[in-house]
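Appendix B, record 7
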Amino acid sequence: MCGITGWVAYDRDLTAERAVLDAMTATQICRGPDAGGVHLEQHAALGHRRLAVIDVKGGVQPMTVEHDGRLLAALTYSGEVYNHRELRAELEAVGHRFRTRSDTEVVLHAYLEWGEQLAERLNGMFAFAIWDARSEELLLVRDRMGVKPLHYHPTPDGVIFGSEVKAILAHPAVRPVVDLDGLRELFSYSRTPGVTPYRGIAEVRPGHVVRVRREGLSMRRYWALEAREHTDTLEATVATVRALLEDIVHRQLDADVPLCSLLSGGLDSSAVTALAARVLRDAGAGPVRSFAVDFTGQSENFHADAVRPTQDGPYARLLAEHVGADHTVIELDSAELGDLAQRATVLRARDLPGGIGDMDISLLLLFRGVRRQSTVALSGESADELFGGYRWFHDPRAIAADDFPWAVSLTGIGGEGAGPREQILDAGLLGRLDLAGYRRARYHEALAEVPHLPDADPLERRMREISYLHLTRFVCILLDRKDRMSMANGLEVRVPFCDHRLVQYVFNTPWAMKHFDGREKSLLRAAVRDMLPDAVADRVKSPYPVTADPHYPALLQAELAQLAAQRTSPALDLLDRRRLADALSPDTDPQSVRLAVDLALDLDTWLTEYQVTLDL
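Structure tokens (predicted):
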């Protein structure tokens, strides 16, 4: 896993721009702490920071291939291709010769053999750029589910690109400008594929290829969810899901560095950990290492509710004991979670205000602790989106709403279109943003993309829509968060549930099979139940934990008071003075404004550190 960046300019000589490329590449050191490199020629400059995972000595980048002393192509690559061994054998059979064991070299030769159609042949998570020196064209490619990020900024004579926005902003020609549409995207509780809040900076959409030529940019979609008739019985469907998961986890355990799993004690992470434990045990590779997060005093302060009915700790320990995992709990306290320096680190990792406070900070600190012992981790991320795990999949009100179901269920959004996170934003600004209208427009754009089967009954048709919305508009929010917090620590996190074969198969499985026993994720539970303790298999969904320490919200409130007292904070221009005073009132329960305070503090850090120009 790595960080990539680069610049293509057809009207200038980039061999004289080493300093600019070095500055762009340096922003990605956290993603690639092990090594760095650049490739410069007249119209193309590629930068790379490496996190060495496969073929530690051989996979140096940017990687080039030549023939008779003539450069054919250069590659800067981030990610993992899990079928690289099969592809290598196929390429060797038609005459390709390899110098390394790395998947990077396989991707480069795959391009020489198949051109931009190589994307369809790759199984994995990846974002890469290939400069074809023969045709002087650049190819930007992103994996099917958008697990790995890739951003670009078109210029009059080419493009500037990077894994993260910060790499693009390091270029002297690019300034961080955010307008009303940018704020709408930031506050809308959805992610529009290809769009960022920064004016002029786009994402390569998941499952897409962007080609850059002298004539300009073009885009091709190489993968999309398709509507296919599901003819398997329930028994066969369960068996297929199990077989796919076994193959996926086996493939994703490929690494030349220490590897572990992230274990919350929920169904998803427990399934991945149990499958990994079996593969490692059968290979004689020792126990799987697992990691969990917890908070000081959580057992004493935790109060069960409808959202989080149980604590993670006991279930994680039970699963770890069941599979013989080498289990570690990373415990955090409120002082760490409330540290403004950690908040700033999160902000710099995201390049944007997240507004979810300790959930981001604790994930950052969890990954920091994991990285001290492992370089690669397997995660249960995306199973809820795929198998219908969230409570709003089963909430008739959210299902029937003319809106993204999570926005309705999570926030109880009203006429302003804003939720608890935005409650102290300026009322006039909220009126101009019209978040409800913006989100409705994005929602209907998404619905128009959904592939349907003819003659589907109304419930099946609607649940297909709900599934599509999650797999294209919601999962990317969590995948991006996971990527930024992990790569800020130089940790690679793999997501077995994002394997496109599993996603395509389960997407077309009828809703009646996905909750055949009336519960969330029935299909997944049936596929892995034999590997789990009953208490873990039957555990009710509980989201990523937050600290229950009552001191934490009060600490946030005190930090907001310091911000308000500055009077020069750029965030104050976005806040409503009366609502801000209410949030700071001694009569206000700090817990009730926790998300709003988190957002205000994030906005202050973002606007200050990034010197953002608000064009409102």
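Remarks on this record: The mean pLDDT is 94. The two ends are 37 Å apart (CA to CA).
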